Amino acid sequence: MAQQVPVGSEARADRPLGPDGTHEVADDLAYQRHAIVNVIYYGRPGAGDRGWVLIDTGVIGSKAAIMKAAEKRFGPGARPSGIVLTHGHFDHVGVVEDLAREWQVPVWAHPLEHPYLNGSAAYPPPDPTVGGGLVARLSPLFPRAPVDVSDHLQALPEDGSVPPMPGWRWIYAPGHSVGQVALWREADRSLIAADAFVTTAQESAYAVAVQEPELHGPPMYFTVDWDAARRSVKALADLEPELAITGHGRPLKGAALRDALHTLARDFDLVALPKQGHYVEEPAKAEDGSAYRRS
Fold first, then answer.
1. Domain range for residue 42?
2. CATH code, domain with 65
3. For residue 211, is pLDDT > 60?
4. Which of 6, 129, 221, 276 would bridge with 139, disulfide CB 3.0–4.6 Å?
5. DSSP, res 146
6. Hey, how many other C-beta atoms are within 10 angstroms of the C-beta on 209?
7. 3-state DSSP call for residue 69?
8. Using 50, 70 and 90 to split pLDDT, how confident is the model at 290?
9. 3-state SS class at 223
């Protein structure tokens, strides 16, 4: 298994679990852990109908918990103004079809992720050979067929804006997937990093359960382009974030976050790059996802 960049407990950014079932990390940002992945809520408590945004939608079976948290946090019947997907892996889109239909809401994503979100292509196979950890070994069993939200799907604008999130911009952060994006708010230097880097050893079931704060590269078993992943980490480190919420693990803040992120960028090949793997020498491309037909 790859190494990690240690981060002290003082870097933890999550507040105690609130009555709505989420951990706040800022007045208008909260996250909720669903099994192995985080779902993020953007908007102030009590924002009301169409006054908030959901970022990613967790694993299959997350719908009830997401809707319950949204109702408690934003108000009875409060629907989001949009769903933003950082990418389309199964653990980030588990209930997006159900929620888009229930809420009648646009789903925003990078155009390179659209084949995996409109039912037309399956992701390239995961890579269990990257080494170490039960989760990595089980990865061939994970779903990689596309979801189909084509009736709601919108392309994130080329100008970098995020239509339902004024003041934020999206940053292209490929490597873990071909169309992954991170979200960035310059005003307070808040970063939603997706899986460009994570704060737990996602390959290890034990680490996922314990959630000790430490910095890692992207989950190895689903990362299809390691050169792009390296560049993405460097680009996000250069932002000098004050706060980072990742797709897996606890959110981190402050100088300890920035120091660890720069260390990860500098030592990426030592810390994050697997010693072997199908995609280490031969990165996958968008067109490598196989055509998919529903039975």
1. 5-282
2. 3.60.15.10
3. no
4. 221
5. P
6. 9
7. helix
8. low
9. coil
